[in-house]
């Protein structure tokens, strides 16, 4: 194998596939990046066996030569060393050559690295995905779907299925749900091309976080392919594979109350900041619990009290308060997470009593829903 | 005590004194910030008993009212909570009032915090500094002196005296020296006002790092006052106290060789980058050792070799090589630290053999010197 490549393109692709590489692997070859040069270009692959990322660098793009392939072939190079080296090379082009054995020479200017490689034949094969059922989403919408749900996945391995986001496709609608059993985030979106049949899979939250970092905020269409135990996201020159979580995702639809006893509409940013302040004196441990009380005249009070530190209270004018009076306590963190995920300037919160889950929605957007369980303090 | 203050000025002063506050203290009251309001303004104090910082906010500045003192007095408030609170308050002004006992009310807009304070009488007194001998340095020069030496202090407590920077004043010259016994950094500077007598004190490296963060890159004159066991730096509205390290600093003058067997002049940035690249494959453990070899034609080779990973070599055209041929090995980190501290574009390195310390100087500036001990590999 030998090719000469533009350094910045190589650096970019190495950074992409590095997101799948971990040094904490029990499979030594997965600490490496697989590099394959063929006639069309160079492919880099990184994997931690849960996530696999493949980045392709074509020999030319918009009539600019990016890679000159001298001899096709493949090699696996230690990801950390290779990444550090290409980032710090002195010139704009890099010459990479595999000698006999797996010795690899990396030349740029007067700097010459001789790196011990590994046999690319030993590198695990990527999952084979049959592409009979695919659908497409713009990259920015996909990033938004992830951002608005993934924060609510469970971080505990007690119920592994809850560490993932449930992704359902029904006709022309995509539904993403995440819950850690104390709160739930849901977001729906229309998909353009109608899908035959329906899917319900669970994608690990970690995979979606990594995917989100790789996607640009553009309307470039990302193709999704779902199989029994893998999902594949295809962008231009980039393939992102993730394993799926096994098991049945709980039916969350019956958790969501239909009725409402108290309904508060409030300016999202003011409410968020008041809760943030009230939580300052409630930070000991993880129970950063704040209390919300409805007062007369459409005013709500946000407060907290930790006797050994002090107490805080703040009054806030709501847009409207309808229904019964209410005193309720909740995790400030959960409500702040939910408010940050909802993009609306005004939000409506529907309560069905101090002991029952409550729902936060954007006033003008019904594609998103955040559900939170209160904390019992009375 | 009660005063109304501009929030941004309070936030700024809290951030300054917070640099001295640590949560890991055995003296509970030192987790707090002492706030004192008198007729002239408000003083905040933070301390970890090694470093003490006092920040003063005058009632007015350039005819703008900053503080309105309603009632003088003092209180100690938990630094973390108080810092978080003032940073997140909703309005531009803050009303702070101590009620009977040590209950403190912090009001801003409709937010009201009630924080448990501590008795300011219990807060340790700051050192009393007699100001018979003082001298002044511009803030930017003081920052440079710190930056060019403090990185070379020892991080090991084996010889505590080496964790500080030796600061000597003789007539109109200030000399800063730091060494961890493997390398040494020295910087001299003229001071304007002549000092009677001579000083030699050792200031903890940690103190200087914190001081450096507080100083602006301006030519504002900073006044230094040295006493037997304390040093005080005085800036506008800011006092910075540090204890001094006890003991005699070693005489380092005899470590610095006068003769030279090989002298290399090279472009600093090219040399730094070549060493950085050579060190990439030598990073295992702390022995990131690289080798320098003089070749014919004024060329130097920088290389390293770690058999299990690979090897790297790079040739570099020196401006000049004078004297004997040389092969020497050294810590890439130490040489890179030294090159970053020296600001010159061209540097001269004087060697007296592969086993002896070598000296790096800026070609056109003799106020700085960096000495490094080589590593024996032959």
UniProtKB/TrEMBL annotation, chains A, B:
Keywords: Cytoplasm, DNA replication, DNA-binding, DNA-directed DNA polymerase, Nucleotidyltransferase, Transferase. GO terms for molecular function: 3'-5' exonuclease activity; DNA binding; DNA-directed DNA polymerase activity. Residues 137-251 form the DNA polymerase III beta sliding clamp central domain. It comes from the Bacteria. GO terms for cellular component: cytoplasm; DNA polymerase III complex. Transmembrane segments: none annotated. It holds the Pfam family DNA_pol3_beta. One of its GO terms (biological process) is DNA strand elongation involved in DNA replication. Residues 1-127 form the DNA polymerase III beta sliding clamp N-terminal domain. Residues 254-376 form the DNA polymerase III beta sliding clamp C-terminal domain. Confers DNA tethering and processivity to DNA polymerases and other proteins. Acts as a clamp, forming a ring around DNA (a reaction catalyzed by the clamp-loading complex) which diffuses in an ATP-independent manner freely and bidirectionally along dsDNA. Initially characterized for its ability to contact the catalytic subunit of DNA polymerase III (Pol III), a complex, multichain enzyme responsible for most of the replicative synthesis in bacteria; Pol III exhibits 3'-5' exonuclease proofreading activity. Belongs to the beta sliding clamp family. Forms a ring-shaped head-to-tail homodimer around DNA. This is Beta sliding clamp. It comes from Peribacillus loiseleuriae. The lineage of its organism: Bacteria, Bacillati, Bacillota, Bacilli, Bacillales.
